[in-house]
Batch of 4 targets.
Target 1
Amino acid sequence: MFRRNVSHQQPSLFGFAGQLPPAKRQRLQSSWEHEFYQRVFCQIREEDFAVLYAETSSRPNAPVNTLVASIILMYRHHWTTEQLFDRIDFDLLTRLALGLDTLDVTPFCPATFFNFQNRLSGHYARTGVNLLEKVFDGLTAAQLQALQIRTDIQRSDSFQALSNIRGYSRTQLLVEVLIRLHRVLRDEDRTRFAALLEPYVGQSSSQFIYGLERAEIPHQLEQLGRLYHELYEALKGGYPDDESFAVFARVYREHFTVVENQAAVKPCAQLHGGILQSPDDLDATYRKKHGRDCRGQSINVTETAHPENALNLLTDVAVYANNTDDSTILGERLAAIQAKTPDLNELHTDGAYGSAANDRALEERQITHVQTAVRGRPAEVSMAIEQAEEGNYTVTCPRQSVPAQPARKRYKACFAAAVCAGCPGRDRCPAKPRDRKRTYYFDRSNYLLQRRRKALALLPPERRTLRANVEATIRQFSGAMNHKGKLPVRGRFRTMVYAYALAVSINFGRIWRYLAENPALASLFRRILGLFYRRWAALRRKQKGWLSPSASFPLIRLAERLFLLAA
C-alpha cells in the first residue's frame, strides 16, 4: 500500500541538530545537504510512484522520497551500495539530506533498496514510463520557473557511455555463452551432452582462447556452429523461461544460419553492432567512434544556452543504443523537448544531428537548427535557393538568377544555355543540359539544407559558439565513470537511472553554487518555499486527501509572483 512520507515535516524534539553547539548547527543549516533536502528531497512527487504498490490495505511502503534521493546521492558521490548505507547510518549530513533528523531510524534495508529498483525496472518494461525521468522533469520544470531561466535557446550533444563489461572476441563470446548454458542444464541434459561440451566447460573462456592458435579459429567456429545447432534443436522446447537459454538462442541466431539443416557461420561482414556484446549486458551495442571500440549506450543531453541566463540547466536526458545516429535521437526527442520547453526556437548541435527529416520537423515546430558543421560535401558550383513567397523560389548560380517553376514532383530552375556556355564551372554544375537550356531540379529538403548551412553565419558573433560549453556538461557526466570511461552499471535501464539521477544532481549543483554566490536570493527562495509548503500542508489537512491540481496551481503562481516581485 502506498503512503506518502510526511514524517520529515515535523522535526523531532530530540533530533541531532538540537544537540549540536550553535556554531556547528549553523554550519549544518548552511550545508549543501540542507539545500538538497529543501530543493530536491522535499519536491519529489511521491504520488507518481503509487503505481508500484498495491491499492488494497497492506503493509505501507518504505519512504519513496528517501529511496529516490538515496539513488541520486549514490551516483552524485560515486558510492557503492555498501558505502551508501554506511553514509545513511553514520553520516549526519547524509541523514540531513534524506530528511532524517535522528540517529535511531534506518529508513530502509538493502533488500528494500534493490526491490525498489526492480519495481522501477518492471514498471518501465510494462509501460515504457521511467518514473525517475518524471522526477527529473518535475524538479527541472520548477527550477526553471523559480529562477526564471530562459529556455528559448538550447544546445544538445551525446557521448558514449561504455558498459562495465569485458570485450569478448567472437569465439570467446560463443564459448562463454556455452559455459553459462551448461550451468543451468538439467542433470539429464548435462549427461546427454557431456562429451560434446567437455572441451569447453572444463575451463574459462579466456583459458580456452589462450590455448587456441589463430589458424584454428575458422575450424573452431564451424565446430561451434554444429554444436550450437544440435543443442538448440534438442533443448528449444525445454527451457522456455530460462534467461541463459534465451541468451544462447539469441547468439545462435545472430552468428549462424541454417542451410539444409546444418548451421553455417555468418561472415563477419554480415554481423552488425546490435548483436550481443556480452552475456552480462544484454542491451549493450557496438560502435567504433574516433578509432575507439565502444560497447554500451549513448547518452544524449540537452540544456539551456541563452547568453542572458545567469546559469543553465539540463532540460532533457535520453539513453539510446550507442549505434543509434544522433540525427535519429534528435528526431525522436524533439517532441518531448518542446513539450517541456514550449518556447524553444533555436537549437545548437554539432554536425551529426542534421537530416532531411529533422529539417522538416524543426520547420514545422518553428525551431532554427544551428550546427557547428554540416554533414556532406558542398556542391562545387553553388546553387543558392531563396524562398520569396510560399511555394515560390529563386535559384542563383555564379552567373545568373532565375525563378523556379513547379515540376511534377519537384521544382526546376531553367538557366540560359548561352550564359552557361561561358562559365568555367559548367562541367561540374548540378544543372544539366536539356533542350537548349540547363535545368536544375530541387525540392523543399534542398532549401532547408541550405538554410541550415547558413544558420550559424546569420547569428550574432556572441551566439556562434554557444554549443561549445555543452562539452563541460559531458565532462560532468563522464566524471562518474572509471578511468576507462566505463559506467558503474550495466544494462539500458540502469544506465537510464544513472543518467537521470546524475542530471538531477548536476542541476542541483549549479543552483547551489549560483545561490551561494547570491545569498540574499537564496534566503528569499527559502522563504518562498517555506510559505509554499506551509500553505500546501494546511490545504492537505483541510481536504483530508491529495491536493488537487486546481488547488495547487494558485499556490504555484503565488510563489512565482512573490519571487519576481522581490527579485
Target 2
Amino acid sequence: MKKSDFPLIRLFISDELPLEERILNFVCFLGAVATIVALAARIIEGMPFVTIATVLIMLFIILAVFYASARRLKSAKTMTVIVAFGISAALFPMIFFTNGGADSGMAAYFTLCVVIGFLLLKGKKRVFSLILTSVITTICYLATLFWGVGVLPETGMNNMQRFLDNIQSIFVTGFFIGFVIVFQNHVYLKEKLKAEMLEKERAAALEQALVSSRAKGDFLSNMSHEMRTPMNAIIGMTAIGKSSQTLEKKDYAFNKIHDASKHLLGIINDILDMSKIEANKLNLSPVSFEFEIMLKNVINIINLRADERRQKFYINIDKNIPHTLIGDDQRLAQVITNLLSNAVKFTPDGGSVHLDARLISEVDEACRIRIDVTDTGIGISAEQKARLFQSFEQAEAGTSRKYGGTGLGLAISKRIVELMRGEMRVESEPGHGSKFSFTVLLKRGSREKKRLLAEDVNWSNIRIFAVDDDPEIRRFFMDVAENLNIACDVAGSGEEAAGMLADFNKYNIYFFDWKLPGMNGVDLARKINTKSENKSIVIIFSSIDWSIIEDDAREAGVVRFLPKPLFQSNIVDIINECTRIGKTPDPDEKDEDEKQDDFSGHTILLAEDVAVNREIVMMLLEPTNLIIECAENGARALKMFNAAPEKYDMVFMDVQMPEMDGYEATRRIRASDTRRAKSIPIVAMTANVFKEDIDMCLKAGMNAHVGKPLSLEAVLGMLRTYLN
C-alpha cells in the first residue's frame, strides 16, 4: 500500500483538497501531537490538575478544528479564525498563569501562536492576530517579571520540572516549525512540478492544435481539389453534350457525367460520415443479410477497376462462416470497399489483391469474423502508418499527391469496425505491399440450412470440368465440388484439357477461363462442341467484359458467362440452371427480376418544391406507367390529398419545403378525418439522410425513407413494397 493510500496522509497531500485545507489539516495534526507531548510532560512533572486541565482543553479545541477541517464542514474556516484568536487571547495566557509563568517553557507556546497566525490566517485577520499575540505575550511576561503577579504552582518549580518543561517546549516548538517548513517546501515543489507538467501539457496541446490545424488545412486543400475535379468534369461534359451533333458523342458525355457524379457523391458521403464521427453520431442499423451476397455486391464495384489495371483478384471465404448473419451489412460493405479500393489503387498494373474471410470464433451465436485484404502494392512506411487512421490525416500529404482520394476512408472504416466491437490493424513495408486486417462481431442468422442444389437431380451422376492456369482457381473448383458432393476434374491449360478429354461426353458442365495460355477458353469450347455428340454446356469465366468476347463465344457454343472473381453461389446457380429438367440456359433469357416494372392504374402524389427534382422523378418512372401528380409544397400536398384521399395510392414527401414542411404535412394528413389518411403509405424523399433525420420522418408518421440523390432501384423498391 502506498503512503498516499492512508486516509490521514491523504488529508495533507491530496490534490483534491485546496492548499489552505491541507495546511490547516497538517497544522492541526502537529498541534495535536505537540499538545499530547506537553500533556505527558505535565503529568510526569506532577503538575496540579488545573495545569493539566488547561492543556486538555487546548487538545480538545485542536481536535475539534481538525475534525471540522477533515470532514470539510462549512464551519471549519470560521472555527479556525475563532480558535486562532482564542488561543492567543485566552488559552495561552491561562496556561501561562497555571503552568509556572516565566519559569516554564511558555515562551515556546507564544512563539507557536505567532507561527499559527502566519500559517492559518490571511490579510487583516493575520495582522490583527499577530498584534493581539504580541500584546498578550508582553502583558503576561510584564505581569510576572516586573509587576510581581503570582503564578501556579506557588511553591515554584524544582530544577527537574523546569528542565522537563523547557526541554519539551524546545522540542515541541522546534519540531513543529521544522515539520511545517518541510511540509511547505514539499507542497511548493509539488505545486511547481504540477505547474511545469501543466505547462508541458499546454505546450503539447498547442502543438497538437497547430498540427491538427495544418492537417485540416491540407485536408481542405485536398477536398477542394477532389471536389472540383469531378465538378469540372460534370460542367465540362455537360457543355460538350449540349453542343454535340452526334448521339454517340452525347452518350459519351452522359457516361462521363454519370461517373463524375458518382465520384462526387462518394466524396460527399465520406465528409458526411466523418462529420457524424466527429459528432459521435455514427450509428449502426443491424439487419439479417447473406454474407456472400454482400461480398458479391462489393466485388461488382471493385472488379472493373482491378480489370482495367490487369490485376489478379482472389477471394477466399471460409465455409464455416454462417450463410446468414445479423449486422449492418451496408457499413460492413463500406469498410471492405474502402480497403479493396485502396488495395487496387496502390497496387501497380499486373499486381494481385487477395481478400480472405474467416470465422475466428463463435460464442452464444456471436460470430467473430476476420477479413484480410492483402496486396502487392507500394506499401506504407512506419511514419505513414502512425497517422493512417487519424481524422483529416493522409499517408500521402499535400495537394501534389499522386493517388488522390479524400483520405477519410480508413478513419471512417476504423470507427465502423470499433462500433462492430472489432479492431483494425495494418502490416506493411515500403515496396512489399500491405495487409489490412479487421475483425467484427456479428450475430448468427437463421440456422436453417439452405439447400444449395435442386432436389430433383441425381447429383452423384453430375460431373464438371474446370480449366484455369491459376492453381488457386483450380483449388477453388475442387473445394466447391467437395462442398456440393459432386465430381470434378481440373486442368491448367487448353492443351492439357484437350488431352484429358478423350471422352467428350463424360462431363455435364465445363467451366473454362477465357484467358488460357496457348488455346484460350473460346477455342477450347469450339473444339469440344465439334467433337462431342451432344451440345456441351460450356461456361466461360473471365475478368474481361463479356461484350468484348460475346459474339465469338456464342458462335463457339458458350451458353453462359461468369465474371471473376468467382463465388460458390455463382457456381451453384449455374449448375442448378444447367441441370433444370435438362434445360440449357439461354443467354438471352431475362430473369424474372429483370422484367420491367408496370404500375398501370396506380396514382401517387409527389410533394417536392424543386422543379428539376420533380422532373427527374417523373422521367425516371415514366416507363412504369405510373400516374404522378405533383405538389410544390406541403400545404399544397395536404390540400390535394384532402380533396381526393381515395385517389392516391402512395405519397412521396420531401422534408424541406416552403409554407409547410414535409413533417407537418404528414402529421396533418395522418390527422385528417378520413379512413385513407391512416393507411396511405407516405415515404420521405429527402437529402436529410442522418439517422436522426430518418427517425424524425418515422416519428412524424411516414412509413419509410429514400435518400437523395435518388437511386432508381431504391424508388422502385418502395413502389414494389407498397403498390404490389
Target 3
Amino acid sequence: MRRFAYAAAGLLVLPALLWLSLGRAEEKSVNPAPRKVDNFTLKDTDGKEWSLDALSKTKAVVVVFIGIECPVSNAYLPALNELHKKYADKDVQFLAVNSNALDTPAKIVGHAKEYKVAFPVLKDTANVVADKFGARRTPEAFVLSPAGAVLYQGRIDDQFGIGYKREGPTRRDLAAALDEVLAGKTVSTAKTDVAGCLIARAIKPKETGTVTYAKQVARILQNNCQECHRPGQVGPMPLLTYDDAVAWSGMIKEVVTEKRMPPWYADPAHGKFSNDRRLSKEDYDNLLAWIDQGCPKGDPADLSKPKEFAEGWRIGKPDVVFTMEKEYTVPSKVEKKSIKYQNFLVQTNFDEDRWVQAAECRPGNRAVVHHIIVYAFAGTFQDIERERRPDPIGTGFLAAYAPGDMPLICPDGAAKKVPKGATLVFQMHYTPTGTEEKDRSSVGLIFAKQPPKYEVKTRAIAQRKFEVPAGDDNYLVTSQATFDRDAELLSMLPHMHLRGKDFKYDVVFPDGKKETLLSVPKYDFGWQSNYRLASPLKLPKGTRIECTAHFDNSAKNPNNPDPKSSVKWGEQTWEEMMIGFVDYVYLAEPGKKTGEK
C-alpha cells in the first residue's frame, strides 16, 4: 500500500496535505551563473555503480533528490516516471539520489519497488553528494550538462506547494528546462522555488546541553507528536526514537518555528479545547533549544517509559471491529474528476442496544480513501436501501475519518447509541491515484463500561442553498440551528471543501448574549479537526448556534478546481459543502428529569 500517496484528483493530503505544508519555499534566483558539480560514484538498488563522468556523452543528466518518508517527494514519483519515459529516447539520463540518514539501502530498495521507480535510485551515505550539489530538500531537481554544469535547479512543477495541491501543474519547470537544453538554448528560468522536506542529513550530536532528549524532548514528542508520527498513522515519518528526532531535527525546527506543527487551526482568542495541539511555551522553548544545542541525548536514566499505542488505532484497542465485507477496487482513473460515494452495509447483529464511548474509522488504503462516514441505523439492509439512506447530513451519524482529527471520543457519562440489530453504513469517498488500488476499511468501537447518563447526538448545521460566484474570493454563507430543549455542547467540526476559506461558530443565548465559540480563520480541507470543548457548554432551551463561512472561488486560491465556474452544494470534492457539525447531549428527554433513564 502506498502509505502517503496523493490522489490524482480532489485529494489534498492525507495528511498528510498536512506534510505538503512542511516544505518551505527556497529563495528564488533567476539565471544564476552555471556552476560545476564534481564527479561522484554511487550504487543503485541493484548494486550497479553510476558516476557523472560515465554519463559525459549524454545530452543531459537529471538528478533528483528524493526521500522515503517525504510525501511531497512521493507525490512526484509518478510524474518523474513519466518524464523519464518521455526523455529516455532523447538521450537524457534520470537519476534519483536518496541522502536521508535513516533511509537504509534495504528501505530504499523496498520504496523503489513500491513506487515502481523506473530509473536508478542511488544511496548517498552521509549526504556527501547532496553537499556537492547544495541540495536541501526532497524533491529537488538538477539538470546537468555533459560536463557537469548545473543548468537548472529547483522544483519539478508547481502542482504541490505549501498547503495546496492543484489538479495539475500550471508550469512544468523541469520539462521546460530540458526542452530548452535539448534545443541548445539557455534555460530561461534556471532556478525555481522548491517545496518539500528538508534532507535529513547525518549530523553528529553534541555530548551535553541544558536540554536533552532523555530529560525533556522525548516527553514532548510522546505527548504532542507520536499520536500521528508513528507507523500506520497520518504523520509521514516516525518520531519514536532518539535517532528519528535527530535525523528530522532540521524539519522539526522549521515547522515548529513557523507554527505549522503541531497542526491546530483554531483562533486562540476563542474557546478552550481538550484536544488543543499547540505546544506550551515551555515545550516550545525546550524543543528549539535542544536543536540549537546540537541535539544532546542526555542520561538514559532520565528517559520516560515509551508510550504505548494500540497498533493502528488512536482511540486504543477497540472492543469490536467491523470491516467492509468485500474489498472495493478503486480504478486507476475515472472519466469524471472523482468516484461517486460508495455505500457498504455491515450487519452488527447486536442482541441489545449498545452504548459507544469511542469510535474510530480506519481506512484500509490511505492512498485512495478521502473520507469515511459510518452511520448506524436500526433496520435491515432492505429497509436502509429502500429509504435511500444515508443522507450526507442526516441522522445516524456514528463516526468519521478524514485527513485530520476525527475519532469519536465521548466524555464520561455520555455515549452514542447503536440500536439493537443495527446496520452500519460505510459511506466511502474514494479518489484514484493513477494505479488500480484495493480498499477494505473498518470501524472500531469501544463500549461504555456502564449505561451512560446522556446520549450523544450529532447535528449538522448546514446550508444547502448557496451558489458561490466564479471569481469571488470572499463569498459569505451562513446557517443556524435552535435547540428546543436544554442541552450541552460537546464539540464542533466545521466542514467545507476546496474553496473553504474560514469558518466560525457563534452562540446566541435566550437572553440575547452572543459569544464566539470557535473561529477557524484559515480553513484547511487537508486537515479537518473536531474541536472538543474542554468543558461542556450549557445551552438553555431556545439557544441558537450560528455558523458563518467564507469561500474563495477565485484564481488566487491554488486549490480551486475551477475558478471560472460558480459552485453549488454537492457531495463531490469539486463541489462545495457548508456544514457546522456539533456533538451535544440533551439534559433531559421529553417528559423526563435530567439524568432519568
Target 4
Amino acid sequence: MPLSSGTRLGAYEIVSPLGAGGMGEVYKARDTRLERDVAIKVLPDLFTSDAVRTARFEREARLLASLNHPHIAQIYGVEDTPSAGAGQAALRAIVMELVEGQTLDARLKQSRSSRGLPIAEALSIARQVADALDAAHERGIVHRDLKPANIAVTTNGTVKVLDFGLAKSEPEHAAEPGHATTVMAPTVEGVVLGTAPYMSPEQARGQATDKRTDIWAFGCLLYEMLTGRNAFAGATPTDTLAAIVEREPDWNALPAATPASVQRLLRRCLEKDPKRRLHDIADARLDIDEPIDAIAAAATVRRATPKGIRPLWIATACALIAAAIAAGLWISSNRAPAMAPPARLSVFTPGQITPQLSATISPDGTQLAFVSTDASGQSMLWLRPLSALDARVLPGTENAAHPFWSPDGRYLGFQAAGKIKTVDASGGPVQVLADSPIRSGASWSRDGKILFIPKLGELATVPAGGGTPSPVPVQGFWPHFLPDGQHFLYYVGAPADRRGIWVGALDSADTKRLLATEVKGAYAPPGYLLFVRAETLMAQPFDADRLELTGEPAAIADGIWMAAPAGQAAFSASRTGVVSYVNASLFNTQITWLDRTGRRTAPIGQPERWSLTPQLSADGAHIAIARGLFGARHIWVVDTSSGATSRVTFGAVSDDSPVWSHDGTRIAYESGRADGGTRLYLKPVRGEGSETLLMDAASPVTLQDWSSDGQFLVYTARGDSGTSDLWLLPASGNRRPSPLIESRFNQTQAQISPDGHWIAYTSNESGTDEVYVQSFPTPGSKRQASTNGGVQPRWRGDGRELFYLATDQRLMGVPVRLGATFDADAPVPLFRTRLIPQGSQSIGLPTAYAVTADGQRFVVTGPPDDPGPAITVVLNWLAAVKR
C-alpha cells in the first residue's frame, strides 16, 4: 500500500514518493534524529511473510551496510514496523543514502543524440561503475540486476550504484510500462532473475550466476551509453533473451571514435561463455583509464593553446593530414596487397593441461609442443603439427614442464625430476644435461648453449650436447635468449622496486631493466618485446642491438594465463609471426570430492580461481583455500555442504597457505611483503576479529601445518646452503622460531600426526623425493614411509593411515600404528590422480589434496569438467600491431 506524506516509520517521516520497482517502493524521507534526508525503500510483503527470505535479507543487508564506497549508495539500516491490526501488513524498509541527481536511464533518454552519450562522459560513468562493482565483488557481493535505472548520476558527475545485492535471489514484479521488463521464471536450478536486455546468457538459461553476470551487464551498459541502443533487444522479453543467447551485438553501431581498448573490453565483457568472459571487473579499468587519460591530455592541450594560435595550428594540422592522405593513396596504388588480419585457432589437448605448465610454438611456427596427461593420467610432453588434427606423445618425458625449442626446431628441451633434459622432436632417447630444481624455464641459443637455473635465482649455461655448466654473473628467472646468443631477457620478482623484465649478458654483470611488469617477457622477430598486462599479450618495438624499447605497446591477444607470484606467463612466439598461449580460463579450478577409488562424487561450489592446495578443517565442514590472481590472492573459507564462500583476509598484499586450528575457529596464513619477505598471521574465521602477527621474516617462508594441541606451527624456510629447512614456531608466548629439521637437503611438505608426536615430510636426502616420518617436536627416531618415490604426505584423522603421492601420480595409503614408536606396513596404491607430484624441487609447496578424518574421502582442486580449449594459436599477429 503506498505511503502518504507525513507517515512515520520509526524515526523517519515520509516526504514524497521517488519511484517504484520490482524490489519495492522508494520514498524520500526525513531522519528526525540526525536531521538529514534519506531514501526509504519499502520491501514487498514476501520479505515479512517468509522467514527464510527474512533471515537471508538480514544477512545480506548487514554485509551491504559494511560497504563504504563513494560509488555505492550507502545502506544506513533496516526499519521494521509491526502490523497495526487486522488487514494491515507489517512493513520492512531499508534506509539508504538519498542520491540527489538523475538515473542513468533518465540521462540516456534526455540525450538529444540518438548515438548515445559523448565518449568522455560514457567512459567516466563506466569507470565509476567498475570501481563500485570491484569493491562489491571483493566482498563476495553480486548485483545481478545492473541497469541504467539502478545507476544514479549526481549533478557533479559522481556515480552511485543503487540496489546493490538487494535483488540477489528474489523474484521481481513486472516493471512499469515503458521500462525494461524484469523476467522471472522457475527453472531446475532456481529462478531466472534480471532485467531482460542486461541479462547474461547464464541468467537467461536459469543457470547459476556469479560476478561474471555483473561483468556482462556492465558490457551491455557501456555499449548502450556509447550507441544509444541496447546491445540486445527484441519485440518481447522472449525475443530479447533469444538474442542474448544466440546473437552478437551490432559492433558497427559503435562510434568510429571508440578507442580500440574500449572495443576490446566490450567484446570481452560480452563473451557468451562465462569461462572466456573478462574474469575481474578490476581489469576493465585498465582499458578505460588509457582513453580517459588521453582525452584529459587532449583537453589540457586545448586549454593551453592561445586563441590566436589555434586557427594556425588547425590549418597546419589539416594540411599535414591532407598530405598524408594523398601520400597514402599514392602508396596504396603502388604496393603489395595489405597484410591479412590475424587468424586464431583453438587447440584441445588430449588430456588435462595444468596451469603450472606451458605450451610453446616451434621456431618456424609449424608445430606446437605442450604438456598434457595421457589416457592413464600421466603428465607427458606432446607434439602437435598445426597441419594435423592429432598430437603425439614423446616417450620418456614423464612429468615434463616448460618445454623450449632448439633454434632449428629439431629438438625440445624441458624440465622434469629436477633436471634439464632434451629429446629429438621426431622421437628418440631423452638426454639429461644438468640439475635444475627450480621450475622457471630455460632457453636455447643459436650456438648450442642452454641457459637455465641451477639454483634459486642463479643462472648458468650448459652445452646442448652435454657438458659442465658454466655460471652466468646474473640472478633471475625465466631466461630468454636474444638473437645474438650473448644477451638475454630475464625476470626479477623481488624486491618490488626491481620487479620486471631485465636484459643481461652471458659474460657481464651489467644489467638493465626494460619494463616494470608482473611476469616474464620474450623476444619476437622482427623486433618486439612481448609481455603480459592483465591477461593481455602486448607487443612493444624493441631494438635488440641497442637493447632499448623504441615505441608504444599494442595488444595482440587476450586471455593469457599468468601467475604473478611466480613471474610466469604461458605464451611463446615463432620467428614467422605465430604466437601460442595457454588460455587464462584454465586457471579456474573446481573443488571436488573423491572417494577412495578416485571417483569424483560431488563438486563443491563453482569453478573459481582457487589455488591447488585446499586445507580441510578437522570436522570436514569447511575448506580454507587461497583465491585470486596477479599477486592479489586472499584466503577464503568454503562450506563443503553448500559451496557457500566467505572471505577471511582483505589485505593489499597476497595471502596464501592457510592452516586450520584443530577446533576450526582460527586460521594461520602467510602474507607477502613488498621486499620479498613474509609475514605469518593468525585470524579468527568468523566475526570481525583482526589478525595477529605471528612472525615477520625478511625472506620467503611457507606455512605447512599446525599441531593438534595448538602449540606449534611448522613452516619451511631457506637455509644457509640454499635448501629448504623445517622450522618450528610457537603459536603463543614468545613466538621465537627455532630450527626443527636442517640439512644440506630439501625438507618440505610437513604434516604433524594427529597425536602430535610425529611429523611426516618430503625430503630428497636419498637423491629421490621420499616421505619420511620423524619424532616431534624433538627430532630423533626417523623412518622412510614411501617406496620408489613419494611426496605430499597427509595423515588420516585417527592417525591410523598416512597418505602420499607417488611419482606416477598414484595416491598411496600406508597403514600405520602410532605410539612410542612408528610402525608402518607396505604402501597400498589407491587410485591415480591428476595431481602433479611436485616435491622438494618446489620449495615450500604445500600438499595439493586434503583428506577427511575417516580417510574415506579426499578434496582436490582441478580443471572443471568443461574448461574449454587449452591453447590458442594466433597466426599473423604482426597485423594486429600494424593496425
